[in-house]
Request: fold
Amino acid sequence: MSPGSDMIAALATPSGESAIALIRVSGPGARAIAAEILGRDPVPRFATRAELRDMKGAILDDTIITFFEGPNSYTGEDVVEISGHGNPMIARRILENLCSRGCRVAEPGEFTRRAFMNGRMDLSQAEAVMDLIRARGDRAIEAANRQLRGALGRQVSSLSDTLLGAIARVEAYIDFPEEDLPTDDRDLLCKLIESVLKPMSALLATGRYGELLRAGVRTVIVGEPNAGKSSLLNRLLGWERAIVSATPGTTRDFLEEPRIIGGHCIRLTDTAGLSRTPGEIEGLGIARTLDLVAGADLILLVVDSSLPFPALGVELFAAVSPLNTVVVWNKSDLSPPRVTPPPFRDSRSVSVCALDGSGFGHLESAISDFVELHRKDPGPELIAINARHALDLADSRECLERALSKVEIGQSDEMLAADLRCALDCLGRIGGRIDNEQMLDKLFAEFCIGK
Reply:
């Protein structure tokens, strides 16, 4: 059964106890359900208090009923929103009642999928709904809101319009095989393709920033035992998450906690100290630390300012670079920072004291600056593409680069048009213009129930 051909219902608020439970109904019978509950035809976009009763007339809940008439609703269909008390048992009874009235329980993401299928949003906007729900920082919320309002769609639409003009110019000559594309038109075609390639590359450059926004910045705290790694974690979090002890090897496994710094979600991970002569248990912790370092976005190398710079081992030296490491000179109350040896010499360096908190403002600025280095805005709007967008853009760019080389060497118009069409189709996948049922099933399955 295709989306929109039946009537669905779902709890649209998070599971568990809350003050209000919001239950959505979408489909051709939504108006009739609202009329049954209210005892009259509903007024669109007008909230009305009503007692919701079961089929035997018993009161289920005292509710607020709001009716949204299609196509001016979230899904593009008639929609009823029922606001009731947040007790999960009451919400379940209401859902059961709605099912007895002809609804079925919605599948994950089905409301948003119907909105997409009914033309209320393109696919990139549908993805932004889940990005907004999962956002864990101000910057992630900002990027999701821009995408939800069509920022990426407008960029892709502009590129597609330019490509359509180029295709029309080429295909006009395919109908007249005795005529080759004139030199002036070939020069213009090169300029058109290049005018698409430049902003396309700018969009692709936002992919890394998009990954950091959506997944959070994997930040691993490393250093020798007793350098102050756990104290650093506790100070950044503002509470005692890790046990702090003067005994070396207190941390044998890793601890991970999120913290918002500079509007970004930073996933801080405290790790086992890199001891030079570890025991069996400590050795397992160090091996896990090195695995985490290999997958880290950012490394905070904590060094005791009162001691010589440690010899940290070839595995760590192979993983660090000035692009992913901040050297944190801890215990600044005991001694000024010493000289930083290669390969850390060009890394950002910050002096702090985890005991009294001095220098932590500079450390947070260094962490925020690291993330902002990856922010590349292709214009006035904050856009941060995801992995799916990146694949489609990369495929489109590859087609355009082939087309450009064919223009330059004078290959046939038919082969040139095929590459341009391929580039246009790849762009179309971003907004969902190219129908791919399997891809849609996978994408919307990741949504929560009620969205």
Remarks:
- The chain has a mean pLDDT of 85.
- The chain has 15 helices and twelve strands.
